[in-house]
Every structure is written in C-alpha cells, then in structure tokens.
Design a protein that fits this description.
With 261 residues, this protein is an alpha/beta fold. The protein has 8 helices and 13 strands. The strands form 2 sheets. Strands 1, 2, 3, 4, 5, 6 and 13 form a 7-stranded mixed beta sheet that branches.
Length: 261
C-alpha cells in the first residue's frame, strides 16, 4: 500500500494561536497541491513554547484545534497527524498529538510521555501515560513527540505491536540538528519502519529551531529532507516495503525480551 505524506514545516508565531491557525490554513492549501493522503503538523504549533502563558492560551480540551483540523480534513479529504497542541485539561496542560481522519473522526490522542526539562516542559506540562498507536486506512502507525525519540524502548513498544510507520512531531532546536538526524535514521533502521518527522522552522525568544523535517524509509535512507526555512515536504511511502524488510532481516522474531533486564 502506497501513501503520500506531506510535512508542514511551519514557522510558529510565539503565543499567538489565531495567527498560527491562519498560517496553518494557508500551508494546508499549499500542501494539497501535491495531493497527499496524510498531512503532518509540528509540535505545539498553535502556541509555540510560550509555556509561561499556557494557562491563558492553551486550548481547552483541544476543542478549537480539533474543530480546525476536522474542517480541513473534510474539506480536503485528507488525514491529519495534526501535530500537537497545548491541551488544557482538568489537572493542568498536556502536550497532545491529534489524529484525525478525512471524515473528521478523532481516532486517537497521544499525550507526550517524556517531558524535556531543558526547555522547562516539566514545570508547565503534565506527562501522558498511554501509547501513540493509531490506524489510518486499516494500517497501524505510531505517533510520538520530539524528545520521545531519545527513548528507543518507547519506540520499540509501538513497533513491536506492528506499527509500520513512526510519525514524529517536534520543535527540535538547531543546536542539536545532528542528533535529530541521527536519532531518526537509527529509529527507522532498528524498527524497520518509515519515519515521518515534522519539525518546525524559525525561532522564538529563547531558541532557534532546526527545520530539516525528514521522511526516511525502513533501510534508513532519507527519501526527502527539508531545509531550515518554512516549507512543505512531500514523499511517497510504500508500506509493503516494511513487511519485506522485516521478513528479510527478522529482528522482531529474533528479539530476546526476557533477557533485556
């Protein structure tokens, strides 16, 4: 099964959700020129890392962002790995990844498990607990957020259940660009899966972001890579290749999890 995926590598207006919704709408229109099956947005794309104001600007139960993505999904008949949003819930704010199918159904919400202390996430966000597994068109995928890719055991927890592609949404800093590329390529190789990684571009008052969104095949080959500036990155993935490679080098059959202590 072949799917065309588009990553919207957008520059995010710091703490200005309305401006970001408009920017995203424009970029979604641009992405649709390539007729993708799935569109991916970056991490915290409605607010950026304006963490100190989340009590004011976080989206209550992600309702506004869900409505925005549902309307876009139905209008364009495209699935969304809708990036993540500062999601205000009863016990605080979570960093929530949204999966919305082309008919507007919210099929999954994943709350970022690993909070990044270097950017003070642990002071303003509550961690999740559940996996990021979801299905689109009958295919099993996984969605994670930024810092999560530094935890290979968390990624393997998803691919060991059969996920064929890993979607990563991020605000990864330029200072660690080489880590971004190396980690993503490694996750693709060791899990024999596609990796579709959508980073943001631009900067905020404290950080310069790397851009360089990537689409990587299960051999670890980079199919498409963005530069640093705002752009839409598109490539086609072939999910049958995942099964072929997993059969050729059967790492999932050869695992010895009882010895991994």
């Amino acid at each position: 099964m072949k799917l065309k995926v588009s990553c919207i590598q957008m520059d995010i207006a710091f703490g200005d959700p309305e401006k970001n919704y408009q920017a995203a709408a424009n970029l979604i229109e641009k992405a649709m020129e390539s007729h993708p099956d799935i569109i991916v947005l970056p991490e915290l794309w409605t607010t950026g890392y304006d963490l100190t104001r989340l009590a004011e600007i976080a989206d209550l139960k992600a309702q506004q962002t869900i409505a925005f993505l549902q309307a876009a999904a139905k209008k364009h008949q495209v699935h969304f790995v809708g990036g993540s949003v500062a999601n205000r819930v009863e016990k605080g704010v979570k960093n929530t990844l949204l999966i919305i199918t082309k008919d507007g159904t919210v099929t999954h919400q994943y709350d970022k498990l690993h909070l990044f202390k270097l950017m003070d996430e642990h002071l303003y966000l509550k961690p999740g607990a559940e996996k990021g597994l979801f299905q689109v068109d009958g295919q099993l995928f996984a969605g994670v957020i930024c810092y999560d890719i530094r935890f290979p055991e968390w990624i393997r927890a998803h691919t060991s259940e059969g996920a064929k592609a890993l979607f990563v949404v991020a605000e990864w800093p330029a200072a660690r660009l080489e880590h971004w590329r190396a980690l993503l390529i490694a996750r693709a190789i060791e899990n024999q899966c596609y990796v579709i990684a959508c980073n943001r571009s631009g900067s905020d008052p404290n950080n310069q972001f790397a851009g360089h969104s990537l689409i990587i095949n299960p051999w670890g080959e980079v199919l498409a890579e963005a530069a640093e500036k705002e752009e839409v990155l598109t490539a086609e993935i072939d999910l049958d290749q995942v099964l072929e490679i997993r059969k050729l080098i059967p790492i999932f059959e050869d695992r010895k999890p009882n010895s991994y202590h």
